[in-house]
Amino acid sequence: MERFHGIDRHKAYSTISVLNREGVEIEFHPSVKDLKVYLEHLGPEDAIVLEASTGSFWWADHIESRGITCFVLNPYRFKIIKDSWNKTDKHDARNMAKALWVYMVTGEFGLPTIYKPSSTVRELRRLFTYYNLLNRQIRMLKNGIQALLVENGINLEVGERNKLLKTDGGLAVIQNCDLTSASILIITGELELLQNLLERKEVINREIILAGADFQKQVELLITIRGITPLVALAFLADIGDISRFKSTRKMNAYLGLVPQCSDSGGKERHGHINKESRKLTRTILTQTLVQVADASPQLRSFYDALKERRGAGRARIALIRKLCGVMRRMLLMGVEYRDKEENLFNKKIIQYRKILDKNKKECVVKKSA
Fold first, then answer.
1. Phi, psi for residue 115 in degrees, rounded to 5
2. Largest CA distance in the chain
3. Phi and psi for 30 in degrees, rounded to 5?
4. Which of 194, 216, 332, 335 has the highest count of CB atoms within 10 angstroms of its CB?
5. How far apart are CA 300 and CA 87, in angstroms?
6. What is residue 253's predicted lDDT score, i.e. its pLDDT?
7. Mind giving me the DSSP string for 216-285?
8. Sequence-separated contacts (24+) of 254-258 with Cβ below 8 Å
9. DSSP code, position 213
10. What are the backbone angles phi and psi of residue 32, rounded to the nearest 5°?
11. Parallel, antiparallel, or unpaired for β 46-51 and 69-73?
12. 70 φ, ψ to 5°?
């Protein structure tokens, strides 16, 4: 490597500092409007470091496709930037370039980079972000409809409520209710929105399955666990990316936000709430299937019930998810199925899962032949 570039990237421009092999700044660009044009003049003799932000992974892929070495810096662990008194674009770019030069030339300290997931994992994460957004909107509409019914003194039976909120027959239900004209107008509109969101959610479910086709082998292993569907399995795989990068189950659980915060002072260790500044997709999805997960084996059920009685439902829920994630990690590393697999339930899930994948393959063949 002959040149080391520290790039502080923003939406409208980038600030760039360039050092030579001796660690001397040979170029400084305070405001590069078009980063692509700047990269056209670089090659394998250059190394670049970017600060992690929106779009950093796309730029890292683009830079590496040109044969340039690229690192994505973790700003939370890079103390020079995080704790700088003079945090300006100029200082950040120069600090990053200097850190890159020290790491690659002198090797005095490591460069705190972040994990760059594959394009498949990034696509899954985008889809799951939209999936969670749809779920929030669906819950909001359902809560609004039920609140209006309560305001009109109506308490529907479970069957009627499910028909109202989960199918397109909701209009027939409200026609038999004594509602004000304003309530009818609002509920009719919200039911139309709800039906559109439910249909969109089904489309996203299918797209998630198809986007994760590269993980078919891992998904088929994980769904041998009761309560783990292909969607839940892909949420776990999208969160962790490459399972082999975690040296222990605890490190993986910490990354997933399942390990309590710990402070150690004066020889005393104190544990607090879980650290939610981490990946939270797995925790959210598994919480929604907790009942089925607890019934995956007699050991998990007894573990959950005993801990729930001693420590409460909240701690028991997180402990169960933490234990299950450890089980899934071992299954993926060893390539084995769950020991308490229910054959009939597994067969139903595998048939439905493969049906979606096979249908997509046939559609792709038809499109190519056309």
1. -70, 130
2. 82
3. -70, -25
4. 194
5. 50
6. 87
7. HHHHHHHTTSTT--HHHHHHHHHHHSSGGG-SSHHHHHHHTT-SEEEEEETTEEEEEEE--SS--HHHHH
8. 254/278, 255/279, 256/280, 256/282, 256/283, 256/325, 257/283, 258/283, 258/318, 258/321, 258/322, 258/325
9. G
10. -95, 115
11. parallel
12. -135, 140
pTM recorded for the entire structure: 0.84
Which H or E element spans position 9? strand 3-9
* Structural contact between residues 20 and 26, judged by C-beta atoms closer than 8 angstroms: yes
Residue 117 near residue 60 (C-beta atoms within 8 A): no
Q: How confident is the model at residue 44 (pLDDT cuts 50, 70, 90)?
A: very high
Q: Give the pair of three-digit tokens for residue 360.
A: 């997509």
* pLDDT of res. 233: 94
Asked whether 258 and 283 are in contact (CB, 8 A), the reply is: yes
Task: Tell me what pLDDT residue 318 has.
Answer: 87
How many other CB atoms are there within 10 angstroms of residue 154's CB atom?
A: 16
Q: Which residues contact 119 (CB under 8 A, 6 or more apart)?
A: 61
SS3 348: helix
| Residue predicted with more confidence, 295 or 57 | 57
Q: What are phi and psi of 10, to 5 degrees?
A: -130, 175
Q: What is the pLDDT of residues 190-233, one digit of tens each?
A: 988 999 999 999 999 999 999 999 999 999 999 999 989 999 99
Quickly list H helices, 23-118: 35-39, 56-64, 79-82, 89-101
Q: Which two tokens stand for residue 273?
A: 């709430």
Q: Is it the case that residue 79 has pLDDT exceeding 80?
A: no
* Two tokens, residue 363: 């559609």
Q: What strands, in cross-sheet order, belong to the sheet with 14-19? A: 25-32, 14-19, 3-9, 46-51, 69-73
In angstroms, the CA 339 to CA 330 distance is: 12
Tell how strand 46-51 and strand 3-9 pair up: parallel
